[in-house]
Amino acid sequence: xxxxxxxxxxxxxxxxxxxxxxxxxxxxxxxxxxxxxxxxxxxxxxxxxxxxxxxxxxxxx
Length: 61
Description:
The protein is mainly α. It has helices at 2-15, 18-59.
């Protein structure tokens, strides 16, 4: 009897994978956030360089 209850509980846990899916979604979301922040930082650095070049060119006029 105890063995059947334990086996039933293990099967129920095996079928319920909602928690695992949520963890996977959280990891994917975190990776996307890191990539987006890195891209924004790189773009920001390039934009600053462009505006610095423009400011230097305008000072020469």
